[in-house]
């Protein structure tokens, strides 16, 4: 149902992880995700721990789904001294090309426990269906 279009994006993500660089709006980091079919829905789950819902933006244009989020630093009192900071901050983004068999008009989004879950229904025209066989005019009886 998803089409990977840029193999270099994954290489870019790995490089950013190794170098510890934060994403920016012009060069966002990618977010880990799972994608699977569940019944008549296609489900995409994206990890966004520590991101508030008002910092998540979901857009669909034609068949391109874009999810952007920003994890901002937590404001600390002046007397706080940071000892260790490993949690990535900055902008995260994921673009997915959706197949024509998905109904992009009815996407549902939920956010719970740091996971953004998108449910995209399979379009009716893409679901398997039975075709009835009728007796047409081509079955005339020949008398002799």
TrEMBL record:
Top-level taxon? Bacteria
Q: Which InterPro entries match?
A: A-crystallin/Hsp20_dom (IPR002068), HSP20-like_chaperone (IPR008978), Small_HSP (IPR031107)
Which Gene3D superfamilies does the annotation name?
Answer: 2.60.40.790
Name of a matching Pfam family: HSP20
Q: Where is the SHSP domain?
A: 24-136
Similarity-based family: Belongs to the small heat shock protein (HSP20) family.
Protein name in UniProt: Hsp20/alpha crystallin family protein
